[in-house]
Amino acid sequence: MTKLLSGLVFLACAAPAFAQQAPASPSPATPVEVGAAPWKLEPFTATYEAWYKGKRAGDATLQVVHKAGNQWRMDLEIHGDRGVASLLRLNIQQSTVFDVTELPTTTVLRPLSQSTVRKAIFGDKEMTGAYDWWKNQATWTGKIDPDRQAPVPLQQGDMSSLLLDLAIMRDARPGAALDYRVVDNGRAKEYTYKVAADTEIVPVGELSYDAMRVERTNAGDREQVFWVASGVPTPVRMLQRNDGEDAIDLRLIDYQGVQ
Prior knowledge:
Radius of gyration: 17 Å
Shape: globular
CATH architecture: Clam
Strand content: over 45%
Order of helices and strands: EEEEHEEEEEHEEEEEEE
Largest sheet: 16 strands, antiparallel
CATH class: Mainly Beta
């Protein structure tokens, strides 16, 4: 299941108490339309249904928290409580602390630290990463494969896998090609996505969204697809397909933010 998390690479610390929460979910009667409003980073908490091979497997929570100054934290927690996920006791928590720099043409998201905790019947796994932008290298400790224990050189624009979710929300435009370099868990990987020229109606639970389809083009037999709707701070659906069949599927059921 951690393969889905390499697209979000979907993975958490305790949620903060928001002073004011306002449901942002649209009316079921009206699809959410894609607009031209500029993207802005704001705190939110989103809840997803987690599906595995077409069957409901559990739930996932994704949140973005403002810490202090220009520092933020992004957390993902997946809890498998049904079917195969329950049998494997699959529970994944991932958190990235990052800083934000506002430039005239974009918002730069730069990871500072990363942690992953995976609890499964075959053994728990914990990893922590530190991004040293003075030395331009990232290092990991914990249960890391021997071939991933060496420092990884950093390049400007690198991000953690979890920040990929926000980057796609920031950059998705109809017809655009998106390229990212992700440094996570002791290695660097290139991610290339293509945004569809036209939007499509995406049903998620009782809602439907007029959303952009964002599909990874260099994933081989592991397809990754995000659906992005205007006014929603996180993808409304995130799907990984292995060898042409649905594997992990996260479907948004609720989100709340601070006004």
